Please model this.
Amino acid sequence: MNNEQMSDVFSTLSQAMLPAVTQEMRSVLRANQTQTDLFYGMLHYHMGWVDEKLQPAQVHAGKRIRPLLTLIACQAAGGDWQQALPAAAAIELLHNFSLIHDDIEDASHTRRGRLTLWKIWGMEQAINSGDAMFALAHLAMARLSQRGVEPLKVVNSLRRFDETCVQLTQGQFADMDFEKRAKVSVADYIRMITGKTAVLIALCAELGALIAGADDETTAHYAAFGRNLGLAFQVKDDILGIWGDEALTGKSAASDILTRKKTLPVLYGLDQSWEMRQLYAQTDHNEQFVPQVIAILDEVDARRFARQKAIAYSDSALEHLAAASPQGEAAAALQQLADRLLQRNY
Amino acid sequence: MNNEQMSDVFSTLSQAMLPAVTQEMRSVLRANQTQTDLFYGMLHYHMGWVDEKLQPAQVHAGKRIRPLLTLIACQAAGGDWQQALPAAAAIELLHNFSLIHDDIEDASHTRRGRLTLWKIWGMEQAINSGDAMFALAHLAMARLSQRGVEPLKVVNSLRRFDETCVQLTQGQFADMDFEKRAKVSVADYIRMITGKTAVLIALCAELGALIAGADDETTAHYAAFGRNLGLAFQVKDDILGIWGDEALTGKSAASDILTRKKTLPVLYGLDQSWEMRQLYAQTDHNEQFVPQVIAILDEVDARRFARQKAIAYSDSALEHLAAASPQGEAAAALQQLADRLLQRNY
Model:
């Protein structure tokens, strides 16, 4: 199969799956009722379905990579993707719960070009809205039973779902803790992004396989595929956050340096260069800060270090995918999804 | 059986059950490991197991009414209370999750005589700690499988757990919303306290019965017993918040009036008296505010109105308990627990 045909497979599957995921989420969040109160209205706003006045809106709400991965993995593992819809919806709602709380914790005023929930309705209500979204994500999971998934599988899926939730909060804990710490090792950092990003991508592929009825070994390969995919994608994002093309990334080049974000290339630079540690120890910076940091990072070859890490994770992801022996057109679609996320344009 | 013996039954059961609940919660929150990181340490602090420096502490952490009700209801419905331990622990952890977030939302500086979690470690980490406690409460529920509870019962218990979580957030939403609203009806208020307090007490009794294997009708009576018990207790608390004996309630008399809390007697007064509405419309109050409000409440007989409500809920609770036909010494213990909570000293 050539690239063009593979692209068609992914697009064809996505076109069938995305409206079904949206429908499932809307049903859980009671978005199809004629009257909506503010309690659900705030959640609909966050999802991009209504505006600040709770009037219908059409806002681009992300690529929905997570639910697509869940459903395609289910089909590739021999299952019926429609059975996995509640899990796909649950994971997307869980992701959105974490965004609501992250926006408060990071004091972010905007998301996807709109005011964040807490900026409109206040921090107090936004904390509670996030809690509601978290509970509703669990109720989405509970709908697996209605799709004929047997109770033992539902229990096991829910346990993995909540173990992942705990890891997500551990990742967020570490991320906030890093800002205050003078020394963060590369190993600390990998642990943090594993919790904050990779475990959720891993859960997508894992639950897809689990619901399809894959054996434990195959399910573990799907999970490892997702985890490495998530790690590779995050490290790639770190590279683009420093050396990325503004026109492609949508954020100003070197923005991660200006905000002093402790990403992988920066941590490597801090580890390798005394000069870099001196620079980061200063609290106020002049215009030369960004070019000075980049010069040091180039000197210690931080980009190459990060690139090697990203490639290692990419390779590992693809090895686990092969070991999982995905079947049919969904196998091609998974490969295509991975290729898109792992494009080596960095 | 006379009162003295009943008291013995409740005490005897509590003495066996409480250490088991604590042990179950400590296991879920990894409190028995030799090394504790700050992530779990903050949760242990909130539970009263360690101090600010994460050194062992012994702090009175509430009466643990909720887990006791869960376990005693399970036994009264013919079950083995040890099987319900994960649910009892989960409900207590869920309650504590909501306290962590409520303390942020209400800007409370202290709880049970100690600084609140967010006052020590900051609002950002405290939001995340609450999220972690929420996820861990779900993992506590997942341990029902390890106690031999069949998967279908675990799935049904988890669904009821999360439906209750959504109702709790709806109750908290309404509570915060009321502070901004000029007009709150008695019906609005009952709906709010149902969500904020009563549904969780209902869940305790319901899950106890469900795990014991009670039929749907009996389980519904246990739930209704808990719900009415919770409502009666909350309305009683409202009365004591205005007319309570400082020595018994631990808070200064009429404190709810000073803080302008919209409790049942106040809402009744606002509905009945134009003078009261005028008083509450003013933003700064002189020393005469509290005595003036109490004079109006006495004039419109607000205490009697609230007392009648509390008695109606109490009676309904006890009727549902009788209809549930609880068995053995646990039946006496449930009656005793209800009598303690519903004592008519108001």
About this structure: The mean pLDDT of chain A is 93. Chain A has 16 helices and two strands. Chain A has one domain: 3-342. The interface with chain B takes residues 38-39, 98, 101, 104-105, 123-125, 127-132, 134-136, 138-139, 142, 145, 150-152, 154-155, 158-159, 162-163, 165-166, 168-170, 172-173, 176-177 of chain A (CB under 8 Å).
